[in-house]
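Memo to structure team: turn this sequence into structure tokens by end of day. - J.P.
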Amino acid sequence: MRVLVVEDEQLLADAVATGLRREAMAVDVVYDGAAALERIGVNDYDVVVLDRDLPLVHGDDVCRKIVELGMPTRVLMLTASGDVSDRVEGLEIGADDYLPKPFAFSELTARVRALGRRTSVPLPPVLERAGIKLDPNRREVFRDGKEVQLAPKEFAVLEVLMRSEGAVVSAEQLLEKAWDENTDPFTNVVRVTVMTLRRKLGEPAVIVTVPGSGYRI
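Reply from structure team:
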């Protein structure tokens, strides 16, 4: 899942990003509304965690722009105000969910995952294919009933492949969904991660390389 965190409190923004990355999400971070609009125009995000009171461009205007562009991106709006009227206004602008500060990180993560599931074809909470069972919420993977321990990026790549339901996923798509914008697009990190993932999942191999196209399960 690709997430953009937009928050002008840099310590909070960086802490949220670090936490979401530990949950196997690809996360970019910006600290003002103008930078958010720039990133949205370049990258495809599943979810934007958007502070409402932003410098340069207000969070409301960022949200309106996402709606105006007809993007599938879901918006989780954050604010220091917990008033019902503020929550209602945020939802009317086009936000998909609303979370007042301070918040529990576990709740933020759950809301981001729930919104991420709504950006594509609805799938069950637990993904199953070719003897693999993947639970995004618990961050658990089983192969033929045996638990498999994966690093965050390995988990992220497997989740993208599982969600494709047998369709071929290119290396570029994996890079976009499982890594943030600071990753060198010319690196071999995707190939290396897929190789490690294959080894950990064991035999017979379930991740198939489609020459010149990408990978599928």
